[in-house]
Design a protein that fits this description.
- The protein is an alpha+beta fold.
- The chain has two domains: 105 residues, Protein Yojf, Chain: A, CATH 2.70.180; 110 residues, Trna Endonuclease, Chain: A, domain 1 (3-Layer(aba) Sandwich), CATH 3.40.1350.
- Helices cover 26% and strands 41% of the residues.
- It contains five helices and 14 strands.
- Strands 4-3-2-1-7-6-5 form a seven-stranded antiparallel beta sheet, with helices on one face. A five-stranded mixed beta sheet has the order 8-9-10-11-12, with helices on both faces.
- It is elongated.
- This is Endonuclease NucS.
- It holds the Pfam family NucS_C.
């Protein structure tokens, strides 16, 4: 266990250096802002990062119990307790932690060697692959437009099936849920209204929640599952082949054919 006065001195230096701070101790937490909350005395993990983020964790759940992006910090001793206050200016919010005991305090100076973070297997990357071969989802399916903007959002892929019906394709890289189905339903409704054509909706994801599947079927929508392998430099959807040409590739092919005919003459 660490003396509270010593913990305060270490915290002040670490906050000034913008270190990564990990503190475990018994505390109370008070939040004021868009709402108000009061976390009673208990053992918590406090995580403070150099960018001003302040997260308070309990020994359960992935997400923090309280979270704040702070603009300013202050520490003080009050009635024998250590008080840490974090404040955000806009919108005005504050998070005040009153520590009665500090079990552990770790300080780390961390620096990224490279800032060019790259996400492998993004929805855009997977969408690009589907544009090459939509028949992996359904035979006769042809792409019309990628990232088609609507009043209520943006369609990942707008396609046409073998019967000439429009098909709205919504792609998810993780498990599809209730919100995914509702998002697809909004897009299908808007396309059907603006285009005046029969419109289907296909939700594409590795898996789907049971309740989401029930809602999907009730709304007359469809689901297609897929698997993708994540490897550098990109992720690959299983079963994808480049079968469908872009308009530019078709143009280039026609140009080459025309030149060959002229040469033969």
């Amino acid at each position: 266990m660490m003396e509270l006065e010593a913990a305060k001195e270490s915290l002040d230096r670490a906050l000034a250096r913008k270190d990564l701070i990990m503190l475990i101790g018994d505390c109370r937490v008070l939040y004021h802002g868009r709402a108000a909350s009061n976390l009673p005395l208990g053992s918590r993990l406090l995580l403070i990062k150099g960018d001003g983020s302040f997260a308070i964790h309990q020994n359960k759940l992935l997400r923090p119990t309280n979270y704040l992006m702070a603009n300013s910090w202050s520490t003080k001793m009050e009635d024998g307790k250590l008080v840490i206050a974090a404040t955000k200016r806009t919108p005005k919010e504050s998070l005040t932690v009153t520590l009665e005991k500090v079990e552990m305090l770790n300080l780390h100076t961390m620096e990224d060697k490279k800032s060019d973070f790259k996400l492998v297997g993004s929805e855009r990357e997977l969408s690009n692959q589907l544009m090459d071969d939509l028949e992996v989802l359904e035979k006769g399916l042809k792409p019309l437009k990628q990232e088609s903007h609507l009043r209520k959002g943006m369609i990942d892929i707008l396609a046409e099936d073998k019967d000439g019906h429009l098909v709205v394709i919504e792609l998810k890289r993780r498990q599809a849920d209730y919100d995914s189905v509702m998002q697809l339903q909004r897009y299908v409704t808007e396309v059907k209204k603006t285009k005046g054509r029969t419109t289907r909706g296909i939700l594409v994801a590795p898996e789907i929640r049971k309740t989401a599947m029930e809602l999907l079927k009730n709304n007359g929508l469809e689901f297609r599952s897929y698997q993708f392998d994540v490897s550098q430099p990109k992720a690959t959807i299983a079963g994808i082949e480049k079968k469908q040409r872009t308009i530019f590739e078709a143009f280039d092919e026609n140009t080459i054919t025309a030149k060959k005919k002229e040469t033969k003459k």
